[in-house]
Amino acid sequence: MKSDQIIDRLVERYPDLHCCRLQITDAFEMLQTCFRQGGKLFVCGNGGSAADSEHIVGELMKGYMQRRRIPALTRERLLTAYPTNGAYLADHLQGALPAISLVSQTALLSAYANDVVADMAYAQQVYGYGHSGDVLWGISTSGNAKNVIHALQIARTLGLRTLGLTGQSGGAMFEYCDVAIRVPFDSTPDIQERHVAIYHALCLLLEAAFYAPT
Q1: pLDDT, tens digit, for every residue of 60-87?
Q2: Please, which residues bridge with residue 139 across strands?
Q3: What number of H helices and E strands is found in the chain?
Q4: Is 180 left (phi over 0), alpha (psi -120 to 50) or beta?
Q5: Which of 28, 29, 118, 142 has its CA 20 to 30 A from that of 204?
Q6: What CA–CA distance (Å, rounded) separates 128 from 125?
C-alpha cells in the first residue's frame, strides 16, 4: 500500500483527523529520515501514553504487517559462522527499525525518582542515549506532562528532532516539538483513540518504506 493510500484510509476512518494530515506526513518524513541516516527513535509518555510508547516500539522492532527478511549478506554470515544453528538464527530474525521505549527501564526510573527527581527520568535517558539525528517522540493527551516536556527540552539541546502526539491545545509541549500532531479533541478517551490510529498509520508507512512485501 502506498503512503497516500495509508493516510487516505486513516482519514476515511477518522474524518476528524483531516486537519492533522500534513503533520502526520511531516512526522513520517522525520522518522524515515532518522532511520535512513542510522538514527534511533525514543518514545515516552505516562499512563495510557506509556502503554502507547511500548506499543509503537513493538510495531517497529519486528514485523508489523509484513514479514521482514534480514539481508542476504547477514544470512550468509550467520550460516558461515554457525553451521549448526545459523539457519535457525537467520530464519527467526526480523528486520528492525531501532526504537526504544523510555518507560520500560524500571530500575532506572525508580532509582531516579528516589535518588534525584521523578520528572527528570525520561530526560536523563535522552541525555544518556541520544545523539544528533535521533528522534524523541513524546506522547501526552494534555501536552503538559512535565517529564515529557523535560525530555523534549534535553532532546532539542542535544540536536535530536522532536515529535509530539497530543490533544487539541498542544499544551506546553507544543513549543518544543519540531512536528506536533494535535488531534482535535479535549477528552482523553477521544484523544487516545485517535493516537492509536495515527501511530498505527505511521508504523505502516515506515514498514512500507523500508521493507518490500515478501
Answers
A1: 999 999 989 999 999 999 999 999 999 9
A2: 165
A3: 9, 5
A4: beta
A5: 142
A6: 5
